Predict the structure.
Amino acid sequence: MRFLFKTTYAQDLRLAKHSGYTFWYGLLLVLLASAPLWMPEYWLAQLSFVLIYAIVGLGLMLLAGFTGQFSLGHAAFLGVGAYTQAVLTGMGWPFVLALACAAGLSAAVGVVVGLPALRVKGIYLGMATLAFGFIVEEGFARWESVTGGNAGIHVAPPALLGWTLESTASFYLLCLVLAIACTLGILNLLRSPTGRAFVAIRDSEISAQSMGIHLARYKTLSFALSAALAGLGGALYAHKLQFISPDQFSILQSIDLLLMIVIGGLGSVHGAFLGALFLIAMPQAIALGKDWLPAAVGQAPGLQGVVYGAVLVAFVLFEPMGLYGRWLKVRTWLQVFPFYRQGLFKRQKSFQKSDRLR
């Protein structure tokens, strides 16, 4: 196993804790940047969707995983960003300016939702955000003069610095750059006083308040930042599909987003990317597996929902820390092999079941 002995403050401030981080993440970045050279166009398009959902997942992870405020209507922020981008680019606005407005308007809507939500918590907060999602979806359908109603609205490919990003490879690189920027921003935010305040609120609101943390301010800020990232992802989502309609931002989309961060690993930045990868790869795996199943099962209309539900229940019961938590255990097992003990993670499970101050 690797043991780190920090002797300077610079070591503690670095994002890469040791040379292994630098090598593996550098290799991953090289593979992702060179993907248009060796990856088929179809899988490159799917990888673009992974990056888009990862950006949205980073926002929801900040809200739910690090601040402890769950949202069942997060697809509404995704829709606000998508429709803002579609309308503004349709009016001839530059892509970058429209993107900033999409994120800013989503953040403003997040503040509007966050302020009333300060009075509720737990299941009641989920119900409030769920109601907000229904209201926004109905608003998209009724405001036909702007959104096109149920008929939807077409979105042109993004144009940046005089170049129209029509190809799959160029749009993928745009998504990659924005995903890296958002990831670095979230990582730096989490190690700042603001990020530590978010985590303190998640662990115990009473303890956080006793330390001088302004609950209303930081909860509202968390909603705003989460909504801004969702709006940014929604803008890219609109350009990728080139057509959006209200039914794309329904309660089912919100559940998919929440499922994404739970399965990826609640409370970890890695979990947003692993969850996005799961969300895109699972339908592909189900489609491939249908050929091997009996016709009565493979052609059943609710097969995907059943598989999703079974996977979620399995993770909640056997791996609450998600895919990233499972990877941490596998990595620890490889590091201590052959000295692995049966009860190695027993204390971790005990900690998860412990009662926190309320």
